[in-house]
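Page 42, continued from yesterday. The earlier attempt failed because a stray header line got pasted into the input along with the sequence. Redoing it now with the clean sequence only.
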Amino acid sequence: MALGQGAGCSPFCGCASKQIAELIGDELRERFPEIKRAAGAAAFPAAAVLEAWGAKGRALPPASSTPRRVPEDSPEAIGTRVFNVALSPRCYRLKPDAVGAHAPPRAGLYEFVVFDEKKNPEILFVGLSWPRTIQDALREHLDGRLEPSSTRLLAYRPDVYFDFVEETDARSAEDYQDLAAALVSRHGPRFNEAPAPMSGRFARVAVAEG
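This time it went through. Structure tokens are written below.
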């Protein structure tokens, strides 16, 4: 029987399309689960799917036609921001002449650190100086205008050093805020008396030190 003949229609009308759908609908649904029904041309799969099905022995659609799926634990999926940092090549004694000679005259992050007999570091404090310079902030720690004061630090250990972030891909004030929060979370410094607040832009912030 010609397509559409049973209904007295042309083979090119909607009735013919319906008959085509009924003839191959079950097979299409088996091969392509994304097809919910086969009832005329509007229910057929996308052109890319049909082309692959006809030209490649009913192969699956090309990879480019498959939606990209991001793994649930990937940084892109969970909103992680990773900051790359390089610390200063040396640590310097926390005293006025060393601050004047070595602390950078720019905004940024710095740390107070001590070492045990095996040279293992203990981070005492992570500081963010923005927009003032690291040098200015360290001077305020020395003269007691900024906590923790050098008096408190030196009462804990007489040999306190400072270092600072030499290079980083952090650029804005919010970047530095998130970077400081990540460093405080990583080291748990005893003189950071409260968790550092994050900017709220990311679900998680991580640090890669190089």
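Notes: The chain has two domains: 9-65, 75-209.
Reminder to self: strip header lines before submitting.
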